[in-house]
Aminopyrimidine aminohydrolase
Amino acid sequence: MSTPGYGQVFAALRDGCPEQWQAYTRHAFVEGLGDGSLPRASFMHYLIQDYVFLVHFSRAWSLGVIKAETREEMQVCAATVNALINHEMALHVRTCAGLGIDEAALFATKEEVANLAYTRYVMDAGLQGDFIDLIAVLAPCCFGYGEIGLRLAGVAVADTPYADWIVTYAGDEYQDVMASVGEMFDAAVFRRLGPEFRTSPRWQRLQGRFTTATELEVGFWDMGLDGR
Ligand SMILES: Cc1ncc(C[n+]2csc(CCO)c2C)c(N)n1
């Protein structure tokens, strides 16, 4: 399994749920992005829902600033909020504008249940737990898209209509933010659980949260495909 540099805590969590991770990062939706076979309607359905998803993910990352215990943790969360609102969502606005869907319509989109379940699960885990409970549920989204983007950039057919999506997640800007999130996550877990974090009584709960968030990512891709 390829391991881009997102840190050892992420690697341990990912390797703790190999089946779910595979179902997420090798989903039929992902393969369709790479070979260009994904129906356009499925992609648009996904992208419009994803705009709303990012609104709520920006709120969840903002909660990270509140739950942080060091300035470095605050910095990484604030930078991620910035990347989300000012860069990642721009892809959605740009792509939808090209099809005549303006931002007010995006903001007013009715959420599908799979979308709502995921973002509210993340918010609740973050509200209930401490900083690392929050990062554990945010991690599958960040590092999963990082892995998917890098892999697709290497195998995607040259004329896939989804190149803009792939380049957004494979690009240095996104990968650099993810590398700093990975470093921060390692430091945050060492600080609270120590270097033997896997034997901490809290580890199973963190793994459970990470695994559930990964399953909710699978549900999100399924929702995209259902929008055909
Ligand atoms: C369903 C879904 N899952 C993950 C991402 C990717 N993503 C969402 S927030 C974030 C962190 C900072 O950019 C990243 C990478 C997405 N767009 N949609």
Notes: DSSP finds eleven helices and no strands in the chain.
